[in-house]
Structure prediction request, 469 residues.
Amino acid sequence: MATIIDKPGESEYASTSMSIQRTVRQKVPPKIGTHRQSSRRSQRTQNLSSTMEIPSETVFDGVASKYEYFIQVDRPGRSPVRLRLDRDPMVVGRESSCDVCLRLANVSREHARIVFLDEEYVLEDMESTNGTFVNNVRINRCVLRDHDQVRIGEARILFLKRPVKANP
Amino acid sequence: MRNVKASPVYVTFWGTRGSIPTPGAGTEKYGGNTSCVSVRHADTLVILDAGTGLRNLGLDLVRQYARSTRGMNLHLLLSHTHWDHIQGLPFFAPAYIAGTRLTVYGSRKKGNFLESILRGQMDLNYFPIELNELAADIAIREISETKPLTIGDFSITWEEQVAHPGGSVRYCIECGKKKIVYASDVELDKIFPPRGERNRANRQLTEKYCSMVHGADLLIADGQYTEADYPAKVNFGHSSIEMVAQIAQEEKVKQLAIFHHEPQYSDATLDRIWADLSPKYSFASPPMNLFWAREGMTLAI
Prediction:
């Protein structure tokens, strides 16, 4: 950004990429030149480096991927509901004790569950009568990916992966 | 008492990519590991090919058997020995555990070379541990086309596939009334019309192929290229998706898992091809479920 690189005495640095090239060049010991020149150059490098520094905590915080996962449950004649996957496992079925209760035709009492395993969400059929489908394929077990469409009885469930929004 | 033969056969895809592993965000949905499929019924487990997907299967097996006092008894059927079908073997954790019994089956056409090929990829020039240093009891067997193999409740037959450089083998696994065919690494476009020549040799090959896949509950089939991309890949030993889908439909296959995905095809590309092609077969009579084999997916057949 212009406000960062336009410091007094450093206005000749037109862009960040240019300044990085110069920094690298200056770090190589000059073959020819006086001690005075060399000293001025290292002073510049020092100043420039300080403008580019990112606090270590920020780097570490930014490195770890931060995603959150949702399911969007769509039932006939009802508005879609979006639920955050915040428990493990998450059981889907007709029983009121299920985490996602679907009182619909062709849904077994405990029909399927979503478990978090090896950093991934996995959908497992719980020996349901009418099957669990991912993108129209009847599965016993399937690692879920963004925008997979799950079918359980008459319900459609969309699996969504979203980056966590940064705090304002 | 539970009827063992009526219980499902579980088919899991551990590696679905062809030719070379393709890690990365663009391939995470269908997977980047190379060919490996497990077929399980009750206590019997058969592994089809040992591409890089075998590594994750090995880790899963070690977890499952952690509390068991019995050793693992595993059967690995190799279609052939190209890299993308054997590269996972040196990283197969159960092979490092004493008490594991691993029997590897492969084509007799390789002569006595099957063992030397598998030994070769674990030569010290390529890998730090040699085959004979592994703790498991490993047997390498050549198979013959005339004698079916019985492993647990599975009856397994096989046929040589000549339309692949160096040859390959396809397997048919039957369990009760269920039939699963694994036919990867074959260039069907070379033997089936309209591209394949109409001659006696090709007629025999196509008849054998059709007879094996006929009525399969699940056909796992090579479909590396689209019809549009195939002409630039003739003689590479792989089929066009449209060709294999057409044959499967005619042979009344119930589910067709397209397998050995082209490394250049991203998830988005595969999704697009599936969306274009799948409805034609879903609404056909009889309907056939056409889908892309996907790493981390288990089907109950």
Remarks:
- The radius of gyration of chain A is 28 Å.
- Helices of chain A lie at 2-5, 16-27, 35-52, 56-63.
- DSSP finds four helices and eleven strands in chain A.
- The first strand of chain A starts at residue 67 and ends at 74.
